[in-house]
Each structure stands twice: as C-alpha cells, then as structure tokens.
Amino acid sequence: MHDTAPAAKAAAWLADLGERLGRGEIARALELFADDCYWRDLVAFTWNVKTMEGKPAIAAMLEATLARTAPSSWQVTQASGTGTEPVQAWFTFATATGKGRGILTLESGKCRTILTTLQSLDGHEEPLGATRPMGVRHGADRNRKKWTERRAAEEAAYGNGADPYCLIIGGGQGGIMLGARLRQLGVPAVIVEKNAKAGDSWRNRYRSLVLHDPVWYDHLPYIPFPANWPVFTPKDKMGDWLEMYVKAMELTYWGGTECTSASFDEKEKRWTVELVRDGKPVTLRPAQLVFATGAYGPPKFIDLPGASDFRGEVLHSSQYSDGSAYAGKKVVVIGAASSAHDVAVDLWEAGADVTMVQRSPTTVVRSETLTELAFDTYSEAAVERGIDVDTADLLGAATPFALQPAKQKALYDRIRARDAEFYRKLEATGFLLDFGHDETGLMMKAYRTGSGYYVDVGASQLIIDGEIGIKAGVGIETLTPGGIRFADGSEIQADTIIQSTGFQSMHEVVAKIVSRETADSIGTCWGLGSGTRNDPGPWHGELRNMYKPVAQENLWFQGGNLALSRFFSKFVALQIKARMEGIPTPVYATPLV
C-alpha cells in the first residue's frame, strides 16, 4: 500500500501510540495528539463512561490507568480519508482484561478524537457464532431433562429461595436489552415489571403512538428486526416484539411485580429487595441493582391554581391511553412536546375538541426530513454500504458530546432551509418554535433535557389547519369551574385537562424505593451539564449517572430510547459481569469543575 494511504497513516500513528504507551511514556504519547483533542473511553481504560477533553485530562487519565490497563496489540482494521479530509480509522486492541475496539481521527497527522471501547472480557466471551452452545444433547439418557424442564426449574428457583446476581427494576426495552446482554454473559438476572406482560409498557399507551425513529435505528441486540419490518413501528407491534424477544432470549421476566423497597448491606455487598409478585411478597438479595425505568422517573405535575374549583377531570399524559371517552368533549393539553402532540392527535381522531397550551418554545422537525437528512448511517442505503447497526452505533459514539453542537447546528441549518415554508405556516398559528438556545436542534435537546421537541408525524398539519388549537406564551392564572383563565384575561372552556408536562429524574425512583438520602447522594440523571435551560452545569461530557458507576455502590441506571438502550446495555453488562467474576474494576473519575 502507498505510504500516503489513509490506512498506512493510521497504522503508523497507532504503532507510535502503542509503542509509547507500552513504555509508559505518557508525555511522548501526548505529542501525537492535537492541542484540541478528545479521548472518549467506554469501560476499556476507565471502567467508566467518560470523555477526556484536552491533553491535561488525557494525561491524568493515562497516569491513573495505564499500568493496570496494559493496552497492547493495537491494529488498524480499516481507514478512510483524502488529502483534504481527516483520516478516520477503525482499530482493535487488547487490555489486561479483555479485547477492545475503537475509532480515531487524524488531522494533519495528529489525533483529534479517539474512542476506545471494551468489547469482551478474556475467558468470559459471549457464546456466539462458532462458540454457540450445542443445545440439545444427542444420545439416549433416561435422566434427560428437556429444555422446557430446565427452563421451568430455572424460573422456579428464584421464587424458591435462590437469588440472582442482578435484579433489574423495569421491564421495558431498556431492562429487556440489558437482561439479554447479561444472559449471554452468564450473569443470573431477574427483570421485574409492574405491567402483566413484556411489551405492555407500549401496548398500554395511547392508541396513536408509533416509533418516531426509523427501523434501522431501533434494532434490539442479537435479534434485529426482519427485512419486512415497517420503517415506523406501531406501538402494539413493538409490544409484541418485546414479548417475543423475552421468550426467545430466555429471560427471567416477572410481570405483575412491583418493587416496594430496597436496602444495601455495606458489609455483605448485597441488596435486600422487597417485591410484591402477583399480590404475594417476595424477597430477593441480589448483588447488583439496576433501575431501568426508561429515561425518566415519576410523572411531573405542575401546580394549577383553582384546581379544586374545576368541575372536570385533570390527569397526566402517563395516565392517558384512549381518546374514545372524550369524543365531543373539550380537552386542553398542557404541554407542546412529543407526548402532548401525540395525545392531541389521538384526541382529535376520537372526535374531541382539542387545544394545546404551549408554555415554552418547541423544536419541531418533520419525520420525513429527519429520516432523510439525519439518519445517513441508519438506513437501507447504509446497510447496502455495509454499515450494520453495530457499526453505526460506534460511528455515532466516536464524536464526543462537546463536538456534537456544531454538527447538529449545521444539520438544522439545512433542515430549516429545506422546510422553511412548513415552519412559516406553523409559526403563523401562534405556535412558538425554536431550535434550542444555540440553534442545535432536536438531538441536543434530547441529550440535554430529554424534552422540548417533537418529530412531526401528523400533529403539525392539524395545528396549521386549525384542527388542533394553540394557546401559546401566556401563563395560566387559574382554573375556573368550566376551564382555564389565562394571565391575559382570556379563557378556554374545558371538560378535561391533560398535563403533558414531562417526568422527574430517574433518581426520584431511587428516593421512593431506596431512600431520599441515597437518591440525593447520586443526584439527577440525564443531561450533559451544558448550562442551558434545565441542564445546569458543571459540564459532564457524558449523560449524568447513566450506564456507569454512581455514588451508590452496586447501583446502575439503564434506559433511554431503543438505540441508546441497545448500545449502552453492552457496557453496563460488561461492568456487572466483571464484578461478578471478581475482576478488578477500579473506576477512574475526576472531580467536576
């Protein structure tokens, strides 16, 4: 290969890095990095989910982790780039505990970004492909136990005194995907869910709910959606898929089970978890406890003055499931993000007279536009180019959060230009539109606060056509017996008010189940510390408390959309497996400033 080819450049750079790190020459290794550089590590070096920004931060990380990590066998597997573009290279490496994979970018011969991820633990690899289990044992055996008998015994054991190593609270997509990862790694785990069956968390939502993200973005680990699966999945179809997945992956899943309390024994390093399963008390004592209750905690209600005078019904969107009971009635939806739009559409389809009360601006993007412009690595065209979902996930992870805003702003500049007429019509209704304080659009809002945006799958046209009313930018003064009076003196009549006002942080679930003290020691979940509205500093560079060790030992948070749950479930599972096997996991963390 010509020595100016991207692969040769990357291989030479990586060989230099490996040689210098192998000799413990951290200062010389840093000479290979640009001044404005980033090292994102997922478990491989730090046993954490952490991004080091700048040479001093990278140096501090390496000084703390290099000797015990002992990275070696650095190997470029593919590379791309031209004379005017950065070189991007994929590589593999080994550590003292396992095998890793990463991506780096070189600009003018220096590394601008590098991603390192732990992919497997030596001696504890997943039994996949050529190492898959034999399954049925051929031959005659009078004492043979059928697969169904073995599974029944395994399921029964946890109800008869046996304890799992890990207990997952929450049996939606996040808990299910983590359960599958743990199962593949041989970690005994039980998933508990208040709903009766896997998938009910989707089935029980409002009738019009569909996935807003395309199918290529939403695969579950090990069993991707088939090639005939629709681009956008209806909620009940998604529920059925999750139920099938639990059975196919042989997960121990306890539906109809509520976790009432949990306490941690510092000496024994185990939890005592009290459950109510089908009305009967059950106690489990797992070593690891995972909260997988979505990306959020309990519903967030806003105070409505005069609520005691209102003659109608007030409920939260999480309590809403079907618009048929509201046909012919006047319904006010307070809120203007995703759930508010979806609920408003469902009510309109049922024949209700719907008005949305918008308290703050919303980022809106048309589903068709987002699919075409923002999912270039998650698409049929990407699959045809050889980019499967795991490849796409790593490509996305290779850009540190600090560098995302500029990319997202450029994307939303294109989106706004393309759909300028759509936005003009939407704003003409009085709808308050924004693209974030720094014009970075939906994705940065999702990471920073998980709120304030809507992927348009039909509601915006109803608003433009006047089919869904808008009352925007005016505070609620009080509820009246027959509706809502606003600060400008206007009134809206209402039979029902639905608060689509979001959810609290996941750590509030910990406060309810474990203790207020434990929850406060952990702090809020989600957000980057960007200093923007509802995402206060300090800067974290990663999602707060998600997918990594937190202030409370042996407690984890797993959740987010399907894509985040899929990707990070691997790293949560590896961290838990390492602890089960007694592999040292010294967590590298630095104080936030």
Write the SSE topology.
Layout: H1 6-22, H2 26-30, E1 33-42, E2 49-53, H3 55-69, E3 72-80, E4 87-94, E5 98-107, E6 110-121, H4 147-157, E7 166-169, H5 173-184, E8 189-192, H6 200-203, H7 235-248, E9 253-254, E10 257-265, E11 270-277, E12 280-284, E13 288-291, E14 313-316, E15 330-334, H8 338-350, E16 353-358, E17 363-366, H9 367-374, H10 380-384, H11 389-397, H12 404-418, H13 420-428, H14 441-448, E18 453-456, H15 459-464, E19 469-472, E20 476-480, E21 483-486, E22 491-493, E23 496-499, H16 507-513, H17 516-522, E24 555-557, H18 562-580
Parallel strand pairs: 1-6, 7-8, 7-13, 8-9, 13-24, 14-23, 15-16, 15-23, 16-19, 17-18
Antiparallel strand pairs: 1-2, 3-4, 4-5, 5-6, 10-11, 11-12, 20-21, 21-22
Helix pairs in contact: 5-18, 12-14, 16-17
Concise synopsis of the structure shown:
The protein has 593 residues and is an alpha/beta fold. The chain contains 18 helices and 24 strands.
Verbal overview:
With 593 residues, this protein is an alpha/beta fold. It contains 18 helices and 24 strands. It has a six-stranded mixed β-sheet, with helices on both faces. The protein has a five-stranded parallel β-sheet with strand order 9-8-7-13-24, covered by helices on one side. A hairpin with a 3-residue loop joins strand 4 (87-94) and strand 5 (98-107). Helix 5 runs parallel beside helix 18 and helix 16 (507-513) runs antiparallel to helix 17. The two termini are 46 Å apart.
